[in-house]
Amino acid sequence: MANVVSASAPPVLQEYYRILTGGPEAFGAGEGLRPLLSDHLDFTGSLAGHRPDAPDAFLRGVSGFIQAVQRIDPVQEVHDGAGSAVLYDAVMPGGVVRFAEFFAIRDGVIEVLDLVYDGKDYLAKGGR
Predict the structure, then answer these.
(1) Which stretches of the chain score pLDDT less than 50?
(2) Would you say 41 and 113 are in contact if contact means Cβ atoms under 8 Å apart?
């Protein structure tokens, strides 16, 4: 898969998307992704809702995503001192679902992640 983010992205996001696009083999049980997440990850997602202190719950959700996604096509990314935003299309078995991820990164790890997408569309197109 092509790189989702450019070299201007923070290193933690470059690694995050490398794992996300590497398939189930690269993800394993999440051991490579877990060190990229704060122990107090504040996560909000369309299906999960708001989950403070949620790194382990997030990893379970990502596992289902990685099993279902066939390809991630980057659309746009923005990075500055306050955070990062990445917009991409996920090619699923039943079609394309657009995702937007908004990150706050502190001390080299993802502290806050807001994931915006149409949950019903994601499930209808093969999401887990």
Answers:
(1) none
(2) yes
> CA 16 to CA 10: how far, in whole Å?
10
Q: Where are the beta strands (DSSP E) in 1-128?
A: 37-45, 49-51, 71-80, 83-92, 95-106, 109-116
Q: Is 90 helix (H, G, I), strand (E, B) or coil?
A: strand
Residue 32 to residue 15: CA distance in whole angstroms: 9
With 0.85 as the threshold, say if the pTM is over it. yes
Per CATH, the architecture of 11-124 is what? Roll (3.10)
Q: Which of 43, 41, 99 shows the shortest CA–CA distance to 74?
A: 99
Structural domain spans, the chain: 11-124
Helix (H, G, I), strand (E, B), or coil: what is residue 120?
helix
